Amino acid sequence: MWGQTIAMPSPSSAEPRTVRVDPARLAGWLERFAGRHGPVEAHATADRVRCVAPDGAVAELLLRWGPLPGTGDPLAAAVAYATRERTVGVLLVRRKAHAAGVFLGSGLVEGRHDSHYVQGRTKAGGWSQQRYARRRSNQAGRAFDEAAEDAARILVPRLAELEALVTGGDGAAVRGVLASPGLEGLRALAEAGRHPVYPVADPNRSVLVAFPAQFRAVPIELNDLA
Q1: Fewest CB atoms within 10 A around its CB: which of 98, 103, 113, 209?
Q2: Phi and psi angles of residue 168, each rounded to the nearest 5 degrees, phi first
Q3: Long-range contacts of range 32-36, CB-CB < 8 Å, 24 or more positions apart?
Q4: Per-residue pLDDT of the chain (226 residues; tens, 9 = 90+)
Q5: For the chain, how big is the Rg over CA atoms in Å?
Q6: Measured between alpha carbons, how far is 11 from 204 in angstroms, rounded to an integer?
Q7: CB 101: neighbour CB atoms within 10 A?
Q8: Sign of the C-alpha dihedral, residues 180, 105, 103, 86?
Q9: Structural domain of residue 38, as residue ranges?
Q10: What global pTM score does this model have?
Q11: Do 108 and 201 lie in a common domain?
């Protein structure tokens, strides 16, 4: 119809996409970003470093470990911040397995893992279904108790050394384990952090050893011009 106004989306209205960059590659990634889009203006806030290029491309580095220290060049500080070796506790929990470990940088200092038998769901109805559900719940409860015991054994004695507690697996399972008596310090450390509960397969040693590739990676949000 004549005279009707049609709203057109702005060129940068799309949701940002996120890439994850290994800390050792961050400096090179930033150099290539500037090479493609021009010299960037960088500004640090409490939770991110926002890089804006002359052509409108924007990259925002999310600060998972807290604000940048100092007031110097934000990009140099971000690279130093990302590559610094930290002592980090890890707790991975799923119904059928768990793992707990302490890392210095990407190296496992101490760790423990175990698997559990938790019965699968049944299609039976009535009393049988209720019986299986109770049995499955009891098995899961014992599995989470064992995960809490390993967290107490591996992580609690090193609590004062840990800069963060990073978790993975099933979020409800992780919260259930951290609610166990004696793990209050670990729970507070996890709640104070900025990391999500990362997705992992049923934890074993190889899953535990590989986990730093997830939590050490730098998430970078890019607009549609980047």
Answers
A1: 209
A2: -155, 165
A3: 33/57, 33/59, 33/226
A4: 334 433 444 444 567 899 999 999 999 999 999 999 999 999 999 999 999 999 999 999 999 999 998 778 999 999 999 999 999 999 999 989 999 999 999 999 999 999 874 455 544 544 445 544 444 444 445 779 999 999 999 999 999 999 999 999 999 999 999 999 999 999 999 999 999 999 999 999 999 999 999 999 999 999 999 9
A5: 22
A6: 46
A7: 24
A8: negative
A9: 17-84+217-222
A10: 0.83
A11: yes
CA distance 193 to 12: 31
* DSSP letters spanning 98-116: EEEEEEETTEEEEEEEEE-
- 72 and 95: one domain? no
Q: How is residue 210 annotated by DSSP?
A: H
Pair of tokens at residue 99: 């793992």
Same domain, 123 and 106: yes
As a dihedral over the C-alpha atoms of residue 131, residue 133, residue 138, residue 140, rounded to 10 degrees, the angle is 150
Of 116, 174, 177, whose CA–CA distance to 145 is shortest?
A: 177
Helix, coil or strand: residue 204: coil
What's the rounded Cα separation, in Å, for the pair 196 and 154? 21
Cβ neighbourhood burial of 212 (10 Å; 0-12, 13-18, 19+) = buried
Same domain, 92 and 78: no
